[in-house]
Amino acid sequence: MQGVIDTFVMDRSSPIPLYFQVAQHLESAIADGTLAAGTLLLNEVDMADALALSRPTMRRALQSLVDKGLLVRRRGVGTRVVQSKMRRSLELTSLFEDLSKIGQMPTTLVLSSETVQASPDVAAKMRLAPDSDVVELVRLRSAGGKPIAKMTNFVPVDMVRLTSDDLAQRGLYDLMRSQGVTLHSADQTIGAAKASAADAKLLDEPRGAALLTMERVAYDDRGRVVEYGRHLYAASRYSFEISLLTG
Amino acid sequence: MQGVIDTFVMDRSSPIPLYFQVAQHLESAIADGTLAAGTLLLNEVDMADALALSRPTMRRALQSLVDKGLLVRRRGVGTRVVQSKMRRSLELTSLFEDLSKIGQMPTTLVLSSETVQASPDVAAKMRLAPDSDVVELVRLRSAGGKPIAKMTNFVPVDMVRLTSDDLAQRGLYDLMRSQGVTLHSADQTIGAAKASAADAKLLDEPRGAALLTMERVAYDDRGRVVEYGRHLYAASRYSFEISLLTG
DNA sequence: CAGTGGTCTAGACCACACC
DNA sequence: GTGTGGTCTAGACCACTGT
Fold this sequence. Notes:
six-stranded antiparallel β-sheet; about 250 residues; homodimer; elongated
């Protein structure tokens, strides 16, 4: 059965909400196979009782795992652990964080970093007045000794203080977060294009190679544009992985 | 103030949950500008009172809009309407549905549709035994008289009954849904590649053009592979748009 | 301090699936 | 029927924000 649940230890004095504690316990039990794929869980009332929680609190924990795609619930039937192994999602992480997870030890070379007047199209994308000052940042991201991406970013001058040293190590988003910028959402457009001669050389790809392109506009919770980026990826060594759910 | 809220009419005899009705009303008020971007909403207790709802029900409605990125809540401060215009997400929709929304009147040409033995790599992706029978389906999607995508799909033979007539009109996912297949999630990989001579001709692109590639494995709620697809997009006329939130 | 959202409880009734 | 998850209520207390 699910004696597993009785092993969960709840800490009612912790600042971590109870529903979150339960969700964490369940998630790790699923991750390590204690709750195998396909397992039918106890009904939510009994689980709540077993943990001395109210039913709404138990439901909230279960719902959070449904939202993550780890559980499937059906009225009149029960709650089951989902089969597949999904996990991964193209979230609002920087490429740096992406690669770090894969253990590729990425490196960053800052090709240029300067304050310039925004060109008309950049100003439009960032919803800034024409000729507003922005920091233009061009970086080359590499992994395993091979170039992966040329990243061009524009940031409003007053948004964040940037130093090349920081950028070589921490990634742009991480840096902005630590300076009090609260990220809210981003719009991304993914396409493909042939490499220019210069870009092909930079990315160590053949002349005219197909490149993956990604354009991103990121907003803070007040709706201000926090960053605008145009990135080129060596398609032979990089692709985007997206996992998504279907209510 | 937010006299708007008093105009919401709740139907307690409807099968549509109350929290969902409230969320719909709020969402349309935001969409049509009645609740302008940046507006500070009433606190949740007063809103609940105004609609004669309990606070948990009101909270559930608000939370669903926070999850959609339309509202931002901060403890001690209040609830605000978000600024940007986001909306759009690369969900588990077919290209057909994508284009329909944009009003491009897409058409579909079924190039081939036959039952074949799965090749080793296809069988592996679909987690089927080698040489299992699958339906292989190749379609050309066009919009505005120009080809947009060559779509190659593989479906387990027993999963769904396919007819060319249906496929020309309804899209693969729509068809599977209507035959009782419950979609759960999908893993997508987006990349780029140079067009082969044949593909370039089919998609009306120059020789060696850069194409967007998308590979997708879709699962039902039992973890079975429902569909595996390899798609090629004319990058000059199509790109992926993704909107995402950052908790 | 007053006001906000965040968490938690202990019930109730309903809709649906399966026997 | 019986058992499941889905919805809804009416309170309570806490944590954080801003004055």
